[in-house]
Structures are given as structure tokens and as C-alpha cells.
């Protein structure tokens, strides 16, 4: 935890240089195992799905295999669904919600869609329970040409062959108390900006695309998740994390402009989920289940509306 008014690295008002990034990196320690938590779970799915290695992160002395789970009976005539988790490695239910969906629910969609599930886009950050990569870069602001983040560039290469055939992309995230106590103060310090305290919403919400809003789709996701965990209310300003609430549990971001993962395809239906694992009203199991429920609801809605319009 960090004092909200200051950050222990850098000079207020001055963006970080290499020395500050090095000082920040020296503070990061491995706290859990990508190999044990993620790769072993993916390996257990190999009898039912294809598993592809779509890149490797080399952050000396560490190296990480990037893996994705794919439908075994891929059919180019079917629409594609992309599920991503762990773009921010510290957002645990994004990773384990994606794995839960793959294990329990993905096979039900065989013959209806081609699934690609990248459960942990940022394994270095997963192990250190952090938002950034070792260069103090946020992968979820780096999905653009000539990306400075290896994690983002690798996922874009994976998606490139089928990006224009993706019907649904659901990107699984969390909003946590450490956003306010650590990560936003660190961001302000890194950029030489003033830190302005905000409010952490208590509950699940989703982020729609300002440039391609799909309100009925977002509400279908919210309705499904409401059966699993509570939905975040708007704050006293009618906002969630500084953005106007446009429907219960829904805010909008310009996904492509911000370089967010949910902009990586040209999918008609995109959403970024946000659960709140620090709530006294939610357990880790509920958070994982909420993510899996969101994925199922997203696919079900899209398939129903493709069928309706066909």
C-alpha cells in the first residue's frame, strides 16, 4: 500500500527516466507461479482443445511461454470468439475466469463458434501481481501498431489471421483497492502528473466501446452476472471510475484511441469486464464464476442475434 499523496519513486512533477524505472523494477518480487497456476491448467485441457504457443516473453533472467486454447474442430465458416484474461497480470479472476470458462463451458459451443482463449496475456505481471510489464509499460494501453509492449504485440500477431472474422471479444479484468492505493499513484509518478484520488466501485461492471456501442449486448452480460455477484452502482456523480454510467453497470471508453485490448479485433460485440474481488460481498470463487458467466452470456447473445439477422 502507498500513501495516496505521494509515491516513493521519482520527483513530483517530473516523469520517470531509466533510473526511476530501474528503482521501481527492483521493488518487484515474484509472488506466485505462472507455470503452476496457468500452464499446468492449460496442459490439463490438451485432450479436449488445441493449445498453441503464440510467443515468448524474454525478460532476463525470466522467460515465459505465451499460450492460447483453441477449438479443436476449427471451421473457417464459423464466427470466431476471442476471450482474453490477465492483460493486467494482477487481475486474478481474469486469468482464472478464462480458465474456468475453458474447462466447464467452452465445449458446449463446439460447432457454433471457433474459440480462442488467451488466459494470461501478461505472465510476468501475473507472477508479481502487478499492472505493468518490467519496463513500467501498461499492456492495456499498448494495443496499437509498433506496440512498446511485447505482451500486446504477441497477442496482436496471434489474432491477425482471423481478426476480421471475430464476432465477440470479451476481455476479463478486475478493479481492485490497489488501483487506488498503488497503481494510480504509480502511474501519476511515472508520468510526472498529480495524483487525484478516486473512488473504487463495489461490484461488477462492463466497459462498452464509445465508437461501437452495443447496449443490449452489455445489458445481457450484466443480467447474467447479476445472478452470480452484485453489480456496481453509480457513485454520487452518476459515474463509475470517472465515466458516466450509461446503463446499470455500463460505462463507455474509446477502446481504439486508448489502445485497449478490447480493440484488437474488428468484432461487432466487445466488452471489458470488471469485477471487484476486494468486496466483502464477493469471494474469489464468485469472481471467477462471474467472469465465466459473462463469457457465456456474451457468446449466447451474439449467436442469438446472428441467427435472428440471418
Task: Give the structure's gist in a few sentences.
It is built from nine helices and ten strands.
Task: Write structural notes for this entry.
About 35% of the residues lie in helices and about 20% in strands. The chain is built from nine helices and ten strands. The chain is globular and about 55 Å long. It starts with 17 loop residues before the first helix and ends with a helix.
Low-confidence stretches: none
Structural class designation: alpha/beta
The percentage of residues in β strands lies in: 15-25%
CATH architecture label name: 3-Layer(aba) Sandwich
Mean pLDDT: 96
Q: What's the CATH topology label?
A: Aminopeptidase
Roughly how many Å apart are the termini? Answer: 52 Å
The top-level CATH class is Alpha Beta
How many helices in DSSP terms? 9
List keywords for this structure.
310 residues, alpha/beta, Aminopeptidase, 8-stranded mixed sheet, two-stranded antiparallel sheet, 9 helices
Layout of helices and strands, plus pairs?
Layout lengths: L17 H9 L7 H10 L6 E10 L2 E9 L9 E6 L6 H13 L9 E5 L4 H6 L21 H10 L6 E9 L2 H15 L13 E5 L5 H11 L13 E2 L2 E2 L5 E4 L1 H4 L10 E7 L8 H26 L1
Parallel strand pairs: 3-4, 3-5, 5-10, 6-9
Antiparallel strand pairs: 1-2, 2-4, 6-10, 7-8
Amino acid at each position: 500500500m502507498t500513501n495516496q499523496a505521494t509515491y516513493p519513486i521519482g520527483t513530483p512533477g517530473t516523469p520517470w527516466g531509466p533510473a526511476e524505472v530501474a528503482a521501481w523494477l527492483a521493488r518487484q518480487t515474484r509472488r506466485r507461479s505462472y507455470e503452476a497456476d496457468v500452464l499446468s491448467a492449460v496442459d490439463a485441457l490438451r485432450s479436449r482443445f488445441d493449445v498453441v504457443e503464440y510467443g515468448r516473453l524474454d525478460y532476463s533472467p525470466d522467460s515465459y511461454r505465451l499460450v492460447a486454447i483453441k477449438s479443436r474442430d476449427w471451421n473457417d465458416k464459423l464466427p470466431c470468439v476471442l476471450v482474453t484474461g490477465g492483460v493486467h497480470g494482477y487481475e486474478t479472476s481474469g486469468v482464472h475466469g478464462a480458465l474456468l470458462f475453458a474447462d466447464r463451458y467452452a465445449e458446449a459451443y463446439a460447432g457454433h463458434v471457433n474459440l480462442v482463449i488467451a488466459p494470461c496475456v501478461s505472465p510476468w505481471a501475473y507472477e508479481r501481481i502487478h499492472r505493468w510489464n518490467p519496463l513500467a509499460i501498461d499492456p492495456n494501453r499498448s494495443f496499437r501498431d509498433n506496440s512498446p509492449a511485447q505482451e500486446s504485440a504477441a497477442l496482436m500477431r496471434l489474432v491477425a489471421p482471423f481478426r476480421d472474422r471475430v464476432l465477440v471479444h470479451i476481455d476479463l479484468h478486475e478493479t481492485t483497492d490497489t488501483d487506488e492505493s498503488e497503481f494510480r499513484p504509480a502511474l501519476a509518478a511515472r508520468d510526472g502528473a498529480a495524483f487525484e484520488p478516486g473512488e473504487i466501485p463495489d461490484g461488477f461492471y462492463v466497459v462498452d466501446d464509445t465508437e461501437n456501442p452495443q447496449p443490449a449486448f452489455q445489458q445481457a452480460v450484466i443480467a447474467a452476472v447479476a445472478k452470480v455477484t452484485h453489480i456496481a452502482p453509480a457513485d454520487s456523480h452518476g459515474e463509475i471510475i470517472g465515466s458516466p454510467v450509461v446503463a446499470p453497470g455500463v460505462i463507455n471508453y474509446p477502446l481504439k484511441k486508448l489502445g485497449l485490448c478490447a480493440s484488437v479485433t474488428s468484432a461487432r460485440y466487445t466488452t471489458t469486464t470488471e469485477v471487484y474481488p476486494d468486496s466483502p460481498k464477493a469471494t474469489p470463487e464468485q469472481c471467477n464464476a462471474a467472469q465465466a458467466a459473462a463469457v457465456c452470456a456474451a457468446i449466447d447473445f451474439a449467436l442469438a442475434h446472428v441467427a435472428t439477422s440471418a
